[in-house]
Amino acid sequence: MRATVIHGPDDIRIEEVPDPVVRHPTDAVVRVVNACICGSDLWAYRGVAARTAGQRIGHEFLGVVEAVGAEVHGFRPGDFVVAPFVWSDGTCDFCREGLHTSCPQGGFWGEVGSDGGQGEAVRVPFADGTLVQLPKDAAGEEKLLPGLLALSDVMSTGHHAAVTAGVRPGATVAVVGDGAVGLCGVLAARRIGADRIIALGRHEDRTAIARAFGATDVVAERGDAAVAAVRELTGGKGAHAVLEAVGTEESMRTAISIARDGGAVGYVGVPHGGSAGVAIGEMFDRNVSLRGGVAPARAYIPELLPDVLSGAIDPGLVFDRTVDLDGVPGGYHAMHTREALKVRIAF
Amino acid sequence: MRATVIHGPDDIRIEEVPDPVVRHPTDAVVRVVNACICGSDLWAYRGVAARTAGQRIGHEFLGVVEAVGAEVHGFRPGDFVVAPFVWSDGTCDFCREGLHTSCPQGGFWGEVGSDGGQGEAVRVPFADGTLVQLPKDAAGEEKLLPGLLALSDVMSTGHHAAVTAGVRPGATVAVVGDGAVGLCGVLAARRIGADRIIALGRHEDRTAIARAFGATDVVAERGDAAVAAVRELTGGKGAHAVLEAVGTEESMRTAISIARDGGAVGYVGVPHGGSAGVAIGEMFDRNVSLRGGVAPARAYIPELLPDVLSGAIDPGLVFDRTVDLDGVPGGYHAMHTREALKVRIAF
């Protein structure tokens, strides 16, 4: 089969790779229908995050089960499924507690020795613990696919930011970052019932999506000016819940500064740089909490799925370009240069 | 009257100062019965925290109301009261939400222009919002006074660490720091119903109190060895809730490392140094939360008071030395050299 392979910075190739097969009795093989490129893939593309030359890449996909091992009981060939961005055994303490990302047997698609999501098929370890069943007829509804695909990572990650930031009905929320995750954070906050949602972002095409997702205010400033703008919008107090969806020291500093005393920052931007942006003295004086981390998408998909199927939310709007497999290298480039917000891959 | 005054590092004096009087109609004047020296006062004593020469010091006290302003309705002369370590108006949004430490009209005893707790009397701003009524007959029960005095700061602060770390019945808890606050954190965790409480500390006289307060295990190691010891005690997983009661970069690093994936660190040690101990990448991968800050003691005292009065908890055991006002400079020295854990001042 053919799959996306990374050979180094700015060197994404589509190559012939071995067809995945059931290796362990808990494996399934999934034929990919849709995959996509993540903002976090760009860290590898830019050479900021190290990758082994020839490593597979991509961690978001949905598709059709092609084969299952003898110990897979929840899925059979022909099932339509979505995969969270990490696999997990579904049986350990952490999986049972809903923190599948800490499963000791878990792993990340594309890590050395595993298949990546941006290929024609994927071997899925611990299929019963990992995959989530989708309605079979949804596979034929082209309009639904982007939203379902978003559950794999961005929508679940935005939801994690909202949950860990403590978004509640009636809350005032601020979202730092206008990438696909930040936008999904806006949507998640709206879905939970936030009253006011302030989106921080300066790309008008993106803040337009933020408004469509429920943002009531947009702040285009950055740094101190952004802090001042959010304070002004909130009567000087700041936001009860701040969703941090960037991962830089500056964005973390901004997120903490715009949180209301006693509020929380839910951070889901993969931290790049150190902890210098974590203003611990300010957090202490104002009792601002820092929560979040890698999102246990597997725990959230069953909760979010009905709202995608019903059309109550459509996180698929974050995809503004669709390519085929051969278009993937160009898709990386388009996201890198910000020509595209998020690229979907249709097989 | 006479009060404790700080003139510089290692220069604590007892001096004649003006008698406090009701200046605003919401003021009360409290004649101090008991006060104490806080571990955080030592930062000023050691010159690490800056103070203006001649500034008053001390922020924990209980006493008898001597005079009240015309707008004080909840207290009258003769009432026995305890003061939280900050004053607050009791009417703002933050006070009503229980975050009295963020009251815009609030302040800290001993800040420039205010009375400190380590003196014969204190002018209390916003008496109705600040003071908590104690049973009058408790004033005569010498054995109760240390426990009631501890509500002013250390017990409320230990409780804040436990609450923000998410201690629940049945939880496994670790407490970093064997000072008075850490010990009160052990007591607070036990009171909430933690199943296992691991106290990190290497001073045997202090860990003995930790055991009396409910610690089930004591870890004397520090740094990496402490992390390994806690991991071994918890089946490799770490503690659901970690109470950080030191405030150094090393203690923060240890606290984060011994938290279970998905768990939380409740930090109440005043941060000294920067945020280098906040291992943001590790926190992200393992979804470890960082919560806490300056404790809203005023919110907690009403909840904790009945348990002190009934004898269900006795946080007063953290006091291992009692001095009179003239003994205060010696008390600072004794705490600085760790001859004393926490010094009570009886007037």
Automatic annotation (TrEMBL), chains A, B:
Pfam families: ADH_N, ADH_zinc_N. Gene3D superfamilies: Medium-chain alcohol dehydrogenases, catalytic domain (3.90.180.10), NAD(P)-binding Rossmann-like Domain (3.40.50.720). Keywords: Metal-binding, Zinc. Residues 25-135 form the Alcohol dehydrogenase-like N-terminal domain. Its cofactor is Zn(2+). Residues 180-306 form the Alcohol dehydrogenase-like C-terminal domain. This is IMP dehydrogenase. It comes from Streptomyces asoensis.
